[in-house]
TrEMBL record:
<dbReference type="InterPro" id="IPR045000">
    <property type="entry name" value="TR"/>
</dbReference>
<protein>
    <submittedName>
        <fullName>Tropinone reductase 1</fullName>
    </submittedName>
</protein>
<comment type="similarity">
    <text>Belongs to the short-chain dehydrogenases/reductases (SDR) family.</text>
</comment>
<dbReference type="Pfam" id="PF13561">
    <property type="entry name" value="adh_short_C2"/>
</dbReference>
<dbReference type="InterPro" id="IPR036291">
    <property type="entry name" value="NAD(P)-bd_dom_sf"/>
</dbReference>
<keyword id="KW-0560">Oxidoreductase</keyword>
<dbReference type="GO" id="GO:0016491">
    <property type="term" value="F:oxidoreductase activity"/>
</dbReference>
<dbReference type="InterPro" id="IPR002347">
    <property type="entry name" value="SDR_fam"/>
</dbReference>
Amino acid sequence: MWKLDNKKALITGGTKGIGRASVVEFLQLGADVLFTSRSEEDIRAFEKELSEKGFKAHGIEADSAKKEDREKIKNWIDKHWGKLDVLVNNAGINIRKKANDYSEEEFRKVLEINLIAPFEISRLLYSNLKKSGNASIINVASSAAIQDVGTGTPYAMSKSGLLQQSRSLAVEWAQEGIRVNSVSPWFTKTPLTEGFLHNEEKMNAILSRTPLNRVAEAEEISSIISFLAMDKSSFITGQNIIADGGMSINAL
Ligand SMILES: NC(=O)c1ccc[n+]([C@@H]2O[C@H](COP(=O)([O-])OP(=O)(O)OC[C@H]3O[C@@H](n4cnc5c(N)ncnc54)[C@H](OP(=O)(O)O)[C@@H]3O)[C@@H](O)[C@H]2O)c1
């Protein structure tokens, strides 16, 4: 059961960071993988890199926030797989500002990609997930869902909303054989956080709050996503696994 053999898995935002590490790990564990990104060029480059390593995954250029793009994903799954065993709602963005500095468009964009799109994708693919009989949705939230970690309010709101989305769908869809869980990473080395990783003052502040005294590698998050996708985690639903090097239990 420590494998994903023959599981059909969709990973949104699969070309960089945590999503990319998840695509690789899922393939290593035997899954068939479909991934998305907004860049056709990045998709083709990643497909090529994977095929040179002996893996085959398919990428679709699709913006999670666009209805017509989400339908493109659904059409591909209907045509090639019918069922869907694993959905990883990973694609996410951030715009960091003080609350009063956001334009309405910026604020709504963060919510659209991080919170609304996972709900729309999960609903759109519900019939495919139901067909699996043993499906798992994993929503990638954040430490920012639980505490203020200086990410800006819209990001924090979007991720805390995503945690409750996971819990509510976990209850609603349990009888259909669909589990829904979240993973909440703290600072992880990816293109999203690159700016901070080279900022000594910011890094010192992050490390001083983190008992393990380092940030995470993307593979330390994809391993949790893989576990939640597996049948090994079959009695876990509606939960949030926090991967933060001890940051949230460090009071002093
Ligand atoms: N890194 C961290 O420290 C950290 C901590 C907590 C939570 N997280 C969460 O973990 C998830 C992944 O973060 P990451 O650090 O790996 O980010 P990343 O390095 O910026 O990668 C994000 C991936 O998502 C894709 N993407 C972004 N917006 C998209 C959209 N609208 N539609 C489709 N694909 C989209 C990106 O490709 P394109 O740009 O080409 O579309 C890219 O492949 C996010 O939900 C993030 O909020 C990250």
